[in-house]
Amino acid sequence: MLDNMIFKQLMKHSFTIPVEVTYPNGKTEKYGNGAPQVKIKVNEKIPVKDLLRNASITLGEAYMDKKIEVSGSLQVLINSAYESANSFLNNNKFKRFLPKQSHSEESSKNDVQSHYDLGNDFYKLWLDKTMTYSCAYFEKPDDTLEEAQMNKVHHILKKLDPKPGSSLLDIGCGRGTLMLTAAREYNMNVVGITLSEEQYNAVKQRIKDEGLEDQAEVLLEDYRELDHLPFDYITSVGMFEHVGEENLGEYFNTISRYLKSNGVALIHGITRQQGGAYNGWINKYIFPGGYVPGLNENLTHIIESGMQVADIEMLRRHYQRTLEMWTDNFHKVLPEVRKMHDERFIRMWDLYLQACAASFESGNIDVIQYLISKGPSARTLPMTRDYMYKD
Q: Which residues contact 304 (CB under 8 A, 6 or more apart)?
């Protein structure tokens, strides 16, 4: 009885939109004014002790296992929860239900479903042709996803103001789109690093196919173990979210060590303006060991590593749109996904994509590009930002 009462209180105070909730006893309650925008069906009671242990895992698994079903947009529902001042996500009265976590929980990952073991066949279904799995950059309202991903690559490279013949290190190079664009279109000498053998083989083949052997090299090794001369420029996209809270200082120190004096780096990654955070459900099922650092946290590490900030740009709305396009693509190919994975996996990924879109939409998380230099800020860069937007 107590579990039901507390769960009903959570539902009652958690949304800014009208919501209809059907409880396990069949009783339906409407919260908010007007016709319900989203309907929630709770098929089994949610034990309070599980919520106390880890709310994000408990509610995420309940949705995956159909203990909770949602009719309507998950993104709208979750965004509403983030925006509600009385939600358990925001109100001190209910914050005891938030996940109680420490990084030590990441030590046991034997049963974690790895994000990167799913293979290219799955990602090819709903990513664009570049196979880029990070925030796109929408210069125009009608940009396709592929166009927006290439916009992102050029936006990053233009910010560096690179000189022909200069050297670039791409830490976490993925499938090589950024580093090979730098070699092919900006006449740079590039090195990419990845820990994925699949990505390494793909980039190596692309280098050969595009005849870039004299300008491009890809290495299969940890970024901290690189034995190369310092570089003029460094890029790193979607990397620092995976190194762990305790390794952030080392990450930025390593970038500083690999940069030449007055060298410039563009670091692009998910950041919380409110401070660093873990998410138990995402860590268990999507990104093992993931940690989203706070803005102040990253700035402190940048400065302590001997570098200075030249420019910061927030791309929150761009990642929201990227995720919404991924969600649309994912829904369109569900028949193909079902040939690979079961319904629990599909519900997990649908929740992940829409919850992340909602988190960006609400400002709970952001994605930020840090333009940084080794030495006085932007000593080698133009005086204004105009150069970033010239063709």
A: 249, 252
Find where tokens 């000593």 sit.
379
Q: Which amino acid is at 176?
A: G
pLDDT band at 86 (very low <50, low <70, confident <90, very high): low
Single out the catalytic residue among 17, 282, 356, 378.
Answer: 356
Q: Any long-range contacts for 102-110 (C-beta under 8 Å, 24+ apart)?
A: 103/244, 103/245, 103/246, 103/278, 103/291, 105/280, 105/283, 106/244, 106/283, 106/288, 106/289, 109/288, 109/289
Q: Coil, helix or strand for 266?
A: strand
Residues 6+ apart with CB under 8 A from 316: 360, 363, 365, 366, 367
Question: Out of 61-70, 90-99, 111-120, 153-162, which region has the weakest mean confidence (pLDDT)?
Answer: 90-99
Residue 356 bears catalytic tag? yes
DSSP structure string for 114-143: -TTSS-HHHHHTTS-TT---S----SSTT-
Question: Residue 12: what pLDDT?
Answer: 75
Reference 233, options 279, 327, 170; nearest CA is: 170
Q: How far is CA 52 from the centre of its chain?
A: 26
Q: What is the DSSP letter of 22?
A: E
